[in-house]
Design a protein that fits this description.
Number of helices: 13
Radius of gyration: 25 Å
Number of strands: 23
Strand content: 25-35%
Largest sheet: 8 strands, mixed
Structural class: alpha/beta
Strand order of the largest sheet: 7-22-23-21-20-17-18-19
Length: 542
């Protein structure tokens, strides 16, 4: 293999994407990661950095651009470290994410499972319900530049709700007007560290200012300015973090005005969210994600479910609707208290139990208690499961494990660990909770391999079988492709399922059915319903 030269231009073809959304090319036998490249493009690449086995470069000219390439629609793209895919259309982004999950489960996990579905988002902008703005030199409020702690001043972000931009503008003006010093990580001096904003489905906002101290100057003036700029503001909170670290949240909180929490609905359940509470940042897609996890769990109403890493109980309560009982495990005491309160307020306290402690230790404790769950659900942090947690789950011998993952690489690693203990991956789907960024969620169903040993060999004569049922005529992906080609609209699996149900086609339910027309499950807009109906007629389904 010939060594590439730094600052030299090479022509190459982009073959795929890295886990961070970088284009991948092979030049002289070496892998080159290329910024802002799109699969299939032939381009001239300037090599910026050469390592032992890889190199990094950027596109300097396009010989053959991809049809999926587009002009980035954000002035901060490439400056802040937020988005990764604004130089391509959403269709290509979904391809990249599905392929990333497929590679992880196949190459890292060693599983022969096809990830043929990725549930794309109908809304790719303004979907985040939580914003964490770091504050930097010169009153900069925005986001960190990629791989640095330099704060890029960002007036607006296309992923955030508009009220977040309004709150940021007020705080920026406050810092300037009153010469409030911002925190410096290098010296440990300064006052304002982060600006933290939550929003809910009702359009309300909760603002928290994280400070290196106990108070802010001119607190009343700041609150008044925020209330005038954001009429749906429901509370302003001060969070105290006087430690020399890069942790965002504080050790204690003081309410400057209004409430110190928001109320939110998810999958038909009501949740009370304080500043430290963990909650998925994309409500609509989280409902899709939890609907797939519920389907993978295969509950009938009698099962015992153990939910490790349960947080404030969002997945636990979703499972409790169809299980006999759910035991949730979480290491954060405040989250456990919230989970218990959320179960009570949703009428599910009698079907749930929440324990505070390390997942590994409490899983072992439940095992000692003789609890034999039918299903174990895990939604671990990015680092995945510790080996002893995998071992303990296997010893508990559930029929199924539902693995919800925010990192395909650690998911693949853990799938391989489970396989050595008798649990094989049976199904896997991806859900895009973070459009325009490289992050993607995955749901994997693992089952006891020994179940597959009990089988009956059956000879099937395909010529005598009726394969003309509606489900055999077109897959969801084929329907999506048809709608995209003939109407230009992006439609989700959820919307296709809703239109099928309206036409009397009852399938396996793959999302939480709404309890009322006013529930949190999004309903298919008329123009998309018409396009899907046309596709169903084309494929002979209706």
């Amino acid at each position: 293999m010939m060594t590439l030269e730094k600052n030299k231009i090479y022509r190459a073809r982009i073959e795929g994407y890295s886990s961070e959304g970088l284009g991948i090319a092979h030049i002289k036998g070496q892998v080159v990661f290329v910024h802002r490249a799109v699969r299939g493009e032939e381009c001239d690449i300037l090599v910026l950095k050469v390592l032992k086995n890889t190199a990094f470069g950027k596109v300097v000219s396009l010989e053959k651009p991809s049809v999926h390439r587009q002009e980035p629609d954000c002035p901060y793209y490439g400056k802040c470290g937020g988005c990764d895919f604004r130089h391509m259309d959403y269709e290509e982004e979904l391809w990249a994410k599905r392929q990333r999950v497929q590679d992880a489960i196949t190459r890292l996990g060693g599983a022969e499972v096809t990830v043929d579905t990725i549930h794309g988002a109908d809304a790719t902008e303004r979907y985040r319900n939580k914003v964490q703005f770091p504050v930097g030199d010169g009153s900069a409020i925005g986001f960190y530049q990629a791989r640095t702690h330099h704060v890029v001043d960002v007036e607006d972000c296309l992923l955030q709700p508009m009220d977040a931009a309004r709150i940021r503008q007020v705080v920026h003006g406050y810092l300037t007007t009153y010469a409030v010093p911002t925190y410096d990580e290098r010296t440990g001096k300064g006052l304002l560290r982060h600006l933290y904003i939550r929003t809910n489905r009702a359009g309300e906002s909760l603002c928290c200012l994280l400070v290196n101290g106990r108070k802010l100057p001119h607190e009343e003036e700041l609150v008044d300015a925020l209330r005038q700029a954001v009429p749906r503001l429901c509370g302003v909170v001060l969070g105290v973090n006087e430690k020399r670290n890069n942790v965002v949240l504080g050790d204690s909180y003081r309410t400057l005005w209004g409430k110190n929490y928001l109320e939110e609905t998810l999958c038909g359940h009501s949740f009370r969210l304080s500043v430290p509470s963990f909650f998925q940042i994309n409500r609509t897609q989280t409902e899709v994600l939890y609907g797939r996890a519920l389907d993978f769990a295969g509950l009938t109403g009698t099962e015992t479910v153990v939910d490790l890493y349960c947080g404030i109980g969002t997945i636990s309560l979703t499972m409790a609707e169809r299980a006999g009982q759910v035991i949730g495990v979480e290491v954060v005491p405040e989250a456990v208290a919230d989970a218990k309160e959320n179960a009570r307020r949703n009428g599910l306290a009698h079907k749930t139990r929440f324990e505070c402690g390390d997942a590994s230790q409490l899983a072992a404790q439940l095992e000692k208690e003789g609890i034999h769950p039918d299903v174990v659900v895990v939604d671990p942090p990015r680092k995945g499961l510790a080996p002893d947690v995998v071992d303990t789950i296997a010893r508990m011998a559930p029929r199924r494990v539902v693995y919800v993952s925010c990192d395909p690489a650690t998911m693949g690693r853990d799938v391989k660990r489970f396989a050595t203990l008798g649990y094989g991956a049976q199904r896997a789907e991806a859900v895009d909770l973070f459009p325009r960024t490289a992050h993607v969620e995955t749901v994997v169903q693992l089952s006891q391999l020994k179940e597959a040993e009990h089988h009956i060999d059956v000879d099937l004569n395909l010529d005598e079988m009726d394969l003309t049922s509606p489900e055999s005529k077109a897959t969801y992906s084929e329907i999506q492709d048809y709608v995209k080609e003939h109407s230009g609209l992006q439609v989700s699996h959820l919307y296709i399922a809703q239109v099928k149900r309206k036409n009397g086609i009852i399938e396996r339910v793959n999302y939480n059915l709404p309890k009322s027309e006013n529930s949190g499950v999004p309903q298919c807009p008329p123009e998309k319903e018409a396009a899907i109906t046309e596709a169903l007629k084309y494929f002979g389904i209706i």
